[in-house]
Amino acid sequence: MKRPRIKFIKNRRGTAHRAVINKIYSQKRSDPSVFKKLANSFVWSMKGLQFAFVNERSLQIEAGMGIAAVILAAIAGATPLRWMAIAFSAGMLVICEMINSAVEMVCDHMVKKRYDKTIEIVKDIMSGTVLLCIINLSAVSLFFIVIPLVQKLIAFIVR
């Protein structure tokens, strides 16, 4: 992929500074290179998702929790609003875990093998964020899936 040319633009004082001219804004919408760039961005995003799901065990477990919640919601006969809450909670859990994994990789790369208290705090905060998402998904699942399933089971037994 060709990089945009760097042009030197003089500011008001007359000193030169570099500015990358973004071709996307200067080209027409029908220009195929704009769509090619968008397609490349999509491919890179999919590679990132693939890397995360293949290499992060916790992400696999949490995605499994989300899938289980959706399947149980189907069994419980969830309303569209409940479906939305469950899907949003499961999605937020996966998103937070991916952000947590990325931050941990950057932190580990920055400090290599030495200990840094600030990095420990950053990683703990990110881990806490994931924990809150797990608690949220668990609470939503309890209220919107488990309780209706128990009610259906009780109604079935009472008959």
SSE arrangement:
Blueprint: E1 6-10, E2 16-20, H1 23-26, H2 32-55, H3 57-76, H4 80-111, H5 117-158
Antiparallel strand pairs: 1-2
Structure description:
- This protein has 159 residues and is mainly α.
- The protein has a domain at 56-159: Helix Hairpins.
- 77% of the residues lie in helices and 6% in strands.
- The protein has helices spanning 23-26, 32-55, 57-76, 80-111, 117-158; strands at residues 6-10, 16-20.
- The protein has a two-stranded antiparallel ribbon with strand order 1-2.
- A hairpin with a 5-residue loop joins strand 1 and strand 2 (16-20).
- The N and C termini lie far apart (68 Å).
- The model is unreliable at 6-25 (pLDDT under 50).
* Terminal Cα span: 68 Å
Largest sheet strand order = 1-2
Helix content: over 70%
Strand content: 5-15%
Mean pLDDT: 81
Task: Return the CATH architecture of the domain at 56-159.
Answer: Orthogonal Bundle
Taking the sheet with the most strands, its summary is:
2 strands, antiparallel
Number of strands: 2
In CATH terms, what is the fold-level topology of the domain at 56-159? Helix Hairpins
Overview features:
mainly alpha, 77% helix, Helix Hairpins, two-stranded antiparallel ribbon, 5 helices, 2 strands, 159 residues, flat
